[in-house]
Write a structure and sequence with these properties.
Layout (H helix, E strand, L loop, with lengths): L4 H13 L2 H7 L4 H15 L4 E4 L2 E4 L1 H26 L5 E6 L1 H6 L1 H11 L4 E6 L2 H9 L5 E4 L8 E15 L13 H6 L1 E5 L4 H9 L8 E6 L2 H9 L4 E5 H10 L3 E3 L7 E9 L6 H13 L2
Parallel strand pairs: 3-4, 3-5, 7-8, 7-9
Antiparallel strand pairs: 1-2, 5-11, 6-9, 6-10, 6-11
């Protein structure tokens, strides 16, 4: 074998940062050592993995093609190292989740996972669907749990569980006593919604087909709790996952509104890179998600 794991680590870090100095810092190496390691890897096989544009290094076609294989090899080596030290096959798991899943489901899943794998380490990254997808695509996350529909040639999208969005208002809102909202009432309301790029907003926009451009969108917020507080304060009506609203409905601080002509059902999904090596920890996490929430 002509290459070393350290050379592959430098290759992957450089691919991520597109800068040899930042790659070296991330690996606790000197810049000269990282540069030499990358040069040795290329010279040993008489290849070039990057296009060099000043201080910026961008993967060329060969580097892009080899990156997933290098990622898989490094992860397997890290798992073996952790298993030898900790006698654990689960290792280090990096999970991304969209806001509803991250705030209301993922912590419970993580708790159970760590109970069953006390030596494992789990990192949870919470962001909207587009950002989670980007990080899975770039191998920054092992897998993602998302709310939005997604089509991506590099990612495998696996249905997980059904969900439903619910339109809601404060008990004092003029629409609180309505048995079902007409399109006229929908258009008369001020809306407080998630931002574009989120799975929740995607489903809402699809449900409002035909009248979307006529809606009055008062606020766009990135956090579900902020939307709930704004609606409780009477600033408008909102639309979020039922998962995020159950406690508020039980307390009576928010009131569900019925939209019989609008389809607000959707699915949650798992996303993984098609070339990602799926270790025991990934399989166990997926099975636990399906067992706890389905």
């Amino acid at each position: 074998m002509k290459f070393t794991l350290r050379q592959l680590q430098v290759f992957l870090a450089t691919a991520h940062f597109e800068n040899i100095s930042k790659a070296a810092n991330s690996l606790s190496m000197s810049q000269s050592a990282a540069s030499s390691s990358l040069a040795d890897l290329e010279n040993q096989f008489d290849i070039k993995l990057f296009d060099r544009k000043g201080k910026k290094l961008q993967l060329n076609a060969l580097g892009y093609a080899l990156r997933p294989q290098a990622e898989a090899l490094i992860q397997r080596a890290e798992e073996l190292d952790q298993a030898l030290h900790q006698h654990s096959a689960s290792g280090h798991l990096k999970v991304g989740a969209t806001l509803t899943i991250g705030n209301y489901l993922a912590i419970h899943i993580m708790s159970r996972f760590l109970q069953e794998n006390p030596h494992a380490k789990v990192e949870l990254d919470v962001a909207n669907t587009s950002k989670i997808a980007q990080k899975v695509r770039n191998f920054e996350l092992d897998l993602g749990l998302i709310e939005g529909e997604l089509v991506d040639d590099e990612l495998e999208v696996i249905p997980w569980m059904e969900d439903e969005l619910v339109v809601f208002c404060s008990p004092q809102h003029p629409l609180a006593g309505s048995s079902a909202l007409s399109d006229k009432q929908i258009l008369s309301a001020n809306w407080i919604l998630r931002e574009a790029g989120s799975g929740t907003r995607q489903t809402f926009d699809w449900a409002m087909h035909g009248i979307l451009s006529q809606l009055t969108i008062q606020l766009e917020l990135q956090h579900t709790e902020a939307i709930k507080r704004a609606v409780e304060a009477g600033l408008g009506i909102g639309c979020l996952s039922r998962v995020a609203l159950e406690d508020a409905f039980r307390r009576g601080s928010l009131i569900p509104l019925h939209l019989p002509r609008r389809n607000l059902k959707r699915h949650f999904y798992f996303i993984l890179h098609k070339q990602k090596y799926r270790n025991a920890g990934i399989h166990q996490w997926l099975n636990l998600c399906k067992a706890l929430f389905h």
